[in-house]
Amino acid sequence: MTDVRSGRVIDSVLVKKGFQRSLDGDHVRYRFYASGSSDPVARTKISHGMSGHSIGNRLLSLMARQLHLTKK
Question: I need a surface site. Which of 14, 30, 51, 67 has the fewest CB within 10 A?
């Protein structure tokens, strides 16, 4: 079974988990900062055009690994 998520759903979940969103040209970047830290603990990005499109299982797995999260 293919695990597919919408870019909008991923955006919503990451922001709810405390990631800071920023627009950077063609990408939306997400960074998570530990309390008192000026360097991000975890970060990833999504192509700006992907917000309304589906993101497949392989990319979800890579993003989850970058962010130290599970796909769920």
Answer: 51
